[in-house]
Each structure stands twice: as C-alpha cells, then as structure tokens.
Amino acid sequence: MLSTQLAGVDNSGRQYIFNRENNRNENAQRSPNQELLPLTAGINSHDHLEIGGCDVTELVQQFGSPLYILDEESLRSACRQYREAFQNYYPGEFQVLYASKAWSCLGVCAIAHSEGLGIDVVSGGELYTALQAGVKPEVIYYHGNNKSVEELSLAIESGCTIVVDNWYELKNLAQMGQGGQGGQGGQGGQGGTRGPRDRREWGLGGEGGQGSDSQLPTRIMLRLTPGIDCHTHDYIRTGHLDSKFGFDPDQIEAVFAFIGQQPNLTCVGLHAHIGSQIFERQPHQDLAEVMVQWMEKAKSYGLPVTELNLGGGLGIRYTESDDPPSIDEWVQALCQAVKAACESQNLPLPKLLCEPGRSLIGTACVTAYTIGSSKTVPEIRTYVAIDGGMSDNPRPITYQSLYRAVVANKMSAPVSETVTIAGKHCESGDILIKEASLPQTEPGDILVVMGTGAYNYSMASNYNRLPRPAAVVVANQEAKMLLRRETYQDLIRQDCLPDSLLG
Ligand SMILES: Cc1ncc(COP(=O)(O)O)c(C=O)c1O
Ligand SMILES: N[C@@H](CCCC[NH3+])C(=O)O
Prior knowledge:
- The protein is built from 13 helices and 22 strands.
- It is an alpha/beta fold.
- It has 2 domains: 8-72 and 366-490, Lyase, Ornithine Decarboxylase, Chain A, domain 1, CATH 2.40.37; 77-177 and 217-361, Alanine racemase (TIM Barrel, Alpha-Beta Barrel), CATH 3.20.20.10.
- The strands form 4 sheets. Strands 6, 15, 16, 17, 18, 19, 20, 21 and 22 form a 9-stranded mixed sheet that branches.
- The longest helix is centred in the middle third of the chain and has 19 residues, at 282-300.
- 51% of the residues are buried.
- The model is unreliable at 1-7, 20-24, 187-197 and 206-210 (pLDDT under 50).
- Bound molecules: pyridoxal-5'-phosphate and lysine.
- InterPro entries: Ala_racemase/Decarboxylase_C, DAP_deCOOHase_LysA, De-COase2_CS, De-COase2_N, Orn/DAP/Arg_de-COase, PLP-binding_barrel.
- Homodimer.
- Substrate binds at residues 358, 395, 399, 427, 455.
C-alpha cells in the first residue's frame, strides 16, 4: 500500500504521487478532499496502480477506455466524516446533503443516501434521478434560478423542499396552489403540469404525490445573495452581489412579507451558497453570521424558519500545492460560527444543513485513458494524446483547471519527461494537462488523471460524437458498473431523419 507522500518526483526520480505530508500519523483519519488519489489507492506486485483492490490496467481491459473509476470507500468515508463532524461540533439538528450536480447518477445518489445524506438537486432531471435512486423526498432540496412550472409542479408532487430563488418562481408557486396547477410560463405558455402519464413515469401516481399530502402547504426555503466574496474562479463564485442566484438583500424583507400572506407556502428556512473550490474558512464564518441575522428578521415577519443551509464549497486537492482544510476542520468552523451567531442574537440553534459536492466525490474518482499518438515540436513541447479529453473532462478548457496524472502500468518507473496531455477533439484548446511529469510513455500505456469525481461526468458531452465513457465503482477487489459506456447507436438515438431529407 502507498505511504503518505506528496505529488511530484522523488529523489530516485520515480513517480511520486501521494498524499498529504502532515498525515503521517497512521491512525489519523485521512480527509479524502486533502488527498490526490482515492483512499484505497496502492501499487500492486505488478507495479500497477490499484484502487479498491482492483488493478487499474485490468479494469481498462475489462471495461474499456476511457474509464471513470470511483472508489466507494473514499465516497463513503467523506460522507461519514461530514456527519461525524456535525455530531461532534453541533448540538442541534443537522442534515448533510450531497450536491448531486457534482455527479448525478443512480449509484452515487444511492451511496450518499445510504450514508444518511440527503440530496441537493437543481433540475427536473436531477430530481428524477434522486427519486429513482430511492432517496426520500423529505431529504431532497430543489435549487435552481429558473425552474419551469412543469418542474415546480413535479417537485410539489414529490414532496421535496423547494429552495426558491427569485420573485418569478415565488409568484408562480403562490399561484400554483395544490396539485401543481397554474403558474406562468409553463409548456407552450399555458402553465400547468405535463399530465398524469408523466407523473406515473416519475413514480408519483396519477393523483397527488408520493411524498406530499395535498392538505399541506409546500415547504420552501429562500435562497439569499449574501454579498460575501471568496477567492475562487469567477465562474464558480455565487454569493457575491452581482450573481444570477438568489434574492438580493434589498428585496428580502418584501419577500418575507409576501410569503407571510401565502397560505399554501410555508417557509422553513434560509439558504445561501457562496462558491466552489474554496480553501478559506472565513467566508463561510462570515456567511453564518449574516444568515443568522436574516433568520432573526424572518422570524420577526412571523415566518416559521427553523432551517439554515450554508451551501457547499469546500475545495479539494487537485495538485500538490492545493491545501484545503479537512472536512472536519471545515464543519467545525461552520458550526462554531453558527453557534456563536445564535448566542449573540439570542436565537435557538437552527437545523443546520450544508450541501457539499466536490469535497465528497472529487478525489474519490480517477479517469483512466489509453495513450495513443504523440508529436514533438522541437524545442517547444511534446504532445501525448489520450483517447478522451474535453468531452469527458471539460474543466481544464472551461476554468483552466489543473490536474495531475500517473502512468498506471509503470508506477515505479523513473520520471523522465514533461509532456502536454492532449485530448482527441478537433479543438486546439483540448489539453487536459499542460505540463505532466511522467515516465517515458508509449502507445498503450494507461494514463490515470486524478480528482475527476466532481463536475466531470456531470459536465461531459458528446462533442465530436464521442460516446461518454463507462464508470465503475470499486470496492473489496470488485468492480461494478455504475454507468454503461455509450454506444454509437446511443449517439444517434435521438436523431430524426425525415423521409423528405433522403435523396
Ligand atoms: C447551490 C449550490 N449548492 C452546492 C454546490 C456544491 O458546491 P461544491 O461542489 O463546491 O461543494 C453548488 C456548486 O457550487 C451550488 O451552486
Ligand atoms: N462546475 C464547476 C463548479 C460549479 C458548481 C456549481 N455551482 C466546476 O467544475 O468547478
């Protein structure tokens, strides 16, 4: 098994990849978000990378390439660490949600739910996935800045909590009443639902919802834009004032007053999310203080607010220089800030929620690719091409994100070159890693890119008509299919070819 080392090259020039220097205490709990590789990563007697006891090169032989490999233990451990930290630091009720936008599929939702997590969804599709995975609607929270009437209607019927983002949505919900009727801007501008056939498809039955009691008002929370800044990429900051999400501070009191008049809505709490891949703790501590003040104000309008959701955002280690706090440290900071703010306002502790995505699943997964062609531009660089790219990992081209990689079939080979890992798309910017330090590579080698669990599969596309790769979940030397590889038939499944187009 691997010891705890940093990424890079060791004294003997070998690939030298693993994990956090200050985790040298064998008994210390390793926080998955601080590791480069999944917790169960190791090197086996063939000098191959193994994860969950499975040889990565054998997984590629069996399931094909590229392949997402999810380590069940890392995901479960991250879920448990969140819950244990709340148990240790928060004397009130709490609920951890998995932000399924990071990777929404049946298997991942089912694992998170089985560890006691609820699910944050942001579209009808994510809601459908969570429900189909068996997640109880009581622990599903539905976000989004432009939910359609059709989506709202299905959400009401499912019985989940709706996190209301803006006036348009609030007024639609107020009009919709029970059973999802009414509202502006539904299909064809008519409003209303998609009809009973679709409700049955959702497992909601013909009448009423699986989780909703038609006599009860719809449970909502309000998303506020707290005006708190944090240091992360501009595209993934959401809590600053110039954000498309949430009610601005100057609207909030009018919103509270409006909700107080709506018999079919009950506002159970407030929500804010300030951004993603954050390494500082202070912004969330400031957020806690601001939000507790808004809780007090909501109560003064007679709203029965008892829940406070402070979003997600804890960062992960993509490269050796990333240094995020552990899950335990982050939760502790959050809980202490909420407790202190409540004490100073003389408020009872709210039910505290958070909704991490990346820090639960990001480092639990790697992507294995097969190396193919290469090209050396003298005195400039060597491109080494793999059989995937921006379609299975759009983060480098979208956010200039950095990744690290190893060659899974040559784990102890000396690092001898710095190359540029290129994808196979018809796009010059399709570069996964600009400078990768690797041993000598050759066609057929298996390149493993680390930290691909979050916002990879969920943001994957079929650009250039590449089928999406398969994903497996590994544990105890066994690999199980999580997502089947798309086929060429899948690629044309939605295509229509009207007769008139045929010559
Ligand atoms: C509303 C909301 N909640 C939760 C998350 C999850 O964030 P992260 O994956 O950084 O934990 C996001 C993404 O930024 C989000 O927009
Ligand atoms: N997709 C972003 C994170 C956005 C989170 C959702 N608000 C990323 O890959 O880093």
